[in-house]
């Protein structure tokens, strides 16, 4: 890969990862500006309407909407960006994503995966999982805050996103590691009051810098 992917702000702020258009719309109206539609393991033709609607909403709110996994549909419907994991890297056409002008976020879980991710010159690097999570079965151990601090320092100006087990209570300590964004699923979707949880998380992490800042 000779060229870097398009840049995104160093600080993406609160990054909500959700599995439906309904959640995307709710969170946009609540002021979240970095989001991911993460629908797992469904046929592409089944998820295409949701992906198309989510992307249109993202544009309407001038938000950064990343599509997880379904990179062909993200290209087809002009998403802001795509999020891929290490296994996805083995099969996705990264040149097609870059050529279409989409941002690329990559998952990493250790130094070796960071080395691999850096070689692709992505728009951001996600660092996970920081704490135990109930949302996804993880083959590795949680990284904890010490590792997170080390990875963020190593990555320098590369935008970073922390993910995995980040609650409202843990968010301040995660942000104190210098990471530019906290990605959350259950802290919002499983909250007794999602609106209040989102408001608190936005107050802690911000909505992210403007793209042209
Ligand atoms: C912001 C962010 N970080 C990590 C992930 C995990 O992506 P991946 O490893 O591809 O796993 P799945 O989400 O596809 O199960 C993510 N989605 N978002
Ligand atoms: C989807 C995902 N990816 C992770 C990684 O480490 O790559 S952790 C994770 C789940 C995050 O959910 P919650 O905020 O509920 O813990
Ligand atoms: Mg994936």
UniProtKB/TrEMBL annotation:
Record key words, sorted: Magnesium, Metal-binding, Thiamine biosynthesis, Transferase
Pathway recorded for this protein: Cofactor biosynthesis; thiamine diphosphate biosynthesis; thiamine phosphate from 4-amino-2-methyl-5-diphosphomethylpyrimidine and 4-methyl-5-(2-phosphoethyl)-thiazole: step 1/1
EC number: 2.5.1.3
Keyword Magnesium assigned: yes
Cofactor: Mg(2+)
Cofactor binding, per record: Binds 1 Mg(2+) ion per subunit.
Superkingdom classification of source: Bacteria
A Pfam family of this chain: TMP-TENI
Reaction(s) the record says it catalyses: 2-[(2R,5Z)-2-carboxy-4-methylthiazol-5(2H)-ylidene]ethyl phosphate + 4-amino-2-methyl-5-(diphosphooxymethyl)pyrimidine + 2 H(+) = thiamine phosphate + CO2 + diphosphate; 2-(2-carboxy-4-methylthiazol-5-yl)ethyl phosphate + 4-amino-2-methyl-5-(diphosphooxymethyl)pyrimidine + 2 H(+) = thiamine phosphate + CO2 + diphosphate; 4-methyl-5-(2-phosphooxyethyl)-thiazole + 4-amino-2-methyl-5-(diphosphooxymethyl)pyrimidine + H(+) = thiamine phosphate + diphosphate
Domain Thiamine phosphate synthase/TenI: residue ranges: 19-188
Annotated binding of Mg(2+), by residue: 69, 88
Residues at which 2-[(2R,5Z)-2-carboxy-4-methylthiazol-5(2H)-ylidene]ethyl phosphate binds: 133-135, 165, 185-186
Residues annotated to bind 4-amino-2-methyl-5-(diphosphooxymethyl)pyrimidine: 36-40, 68, 107, 136
Family matches, as InterPro entries: Aldolase_TIM (IPR013785), ThiamineP_synth_sf (IPR036206), ThiamineP_synth_TenI (IPR022998), TMP_synthase (IPR034291)
Family affiliation: Belongs to the thiamine-phosphate synthase family.
Protein's job: Condenses 4-methyl-5-(beta-hydroxyethyl)thiazole monophosphate (THZ-P) and 2-methyl-4-amino-5-hydroxymethyl pyrimidine pyrophosphate (HMP-PP) to form thiamine monophosphate (TMP).
Name of the molecule in the record: Thiamine-phosphate synthase
Organism of provenance: Mixta calida
């Amino acid at each position: 890969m000779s060229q870097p992917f398009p840049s995104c702000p160093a600080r993406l702020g609160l990054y909500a990862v959700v599995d439906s258009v309904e959640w995307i719309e709710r969170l946009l109206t609540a002021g979240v500006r970095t989001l991911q539609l993460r629908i797992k393991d469904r046929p592409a033709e089944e998820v295409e309407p949701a992906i198309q609607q989510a992307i249109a909403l993202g544009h309407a709110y001038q938000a950064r909407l990343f599509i997880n996994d379904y990179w062909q549909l993200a290209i087809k419907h002009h998403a802001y960006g795509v999020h891929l994991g290490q296994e996805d890297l083995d099969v996705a056409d990264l040149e097609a994503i870059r050529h279409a002008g989409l941002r690329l976020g990559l998952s990493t879980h250790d130094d070796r995966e960071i080395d691999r991710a850096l070689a692709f010159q992505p728009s951001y690097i996600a660092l996970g999982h920081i704490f135990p999570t109930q949302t996804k079965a993880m083959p590795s151990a949680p990284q904890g805050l010490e590792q997170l601090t080390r990875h963020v320092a190593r990555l320098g100006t590369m935008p970073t996103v922390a993910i995995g087990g980040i609650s409202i209570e843990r968010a301040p300590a995660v942000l104190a590691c210098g990471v530019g964004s906290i990605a959350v699923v259950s802290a919002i979707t499983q909250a007794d009051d999602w609106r209040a949880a989102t408001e608190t998380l936005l107050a802690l992490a911000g909505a992210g810098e403007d793209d042209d800042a």
